[in-house]
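WARN no homologs supplied; continuing
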Amino acid sequence: MMTDADILLVEDNPTDAELTIRALRKNNLANKLHWVKDDAEALDYIFARGSYSGRDPDNLPKLILLDLRMPKVDGLEVLQEIKRNESTSRIPVVVLTSSKEDRDIVESYKLGVNSYVSKPVEFDEFINAVSTLGFYWMIINQPPE
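OK structure emitted
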């Protein structure tokens, strides 16, 4: 049986992934985190297909941290698939990206993103931003039942 995650991290950059995991560990939020390295793998994980076909499709992540700039499928396409599927549309998705382009921000919100965070460049700011957003979405936010 494959382990299901509370947080799905979709990030192709290993350094950014490690920083994100480290920041979430600060609030003890990384123990049920699964990291996928591209958007195609993210869709396989979320919809329990491909190499994740053994995963329980009803045990969905409670939060998805999604980078937009990925090698296979555009992050916006992943966001669109998540939000248009009835079973996954209520999963909070936070875009965590280096892009500050208005086009990406507007399109993300049009597609139903719950939050858009531009990755801070400075180490301490990055750790603080990810730590804060992880704490908010996993501890403070009240999702629908």
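The longest helix spans residues 123-140.
OK
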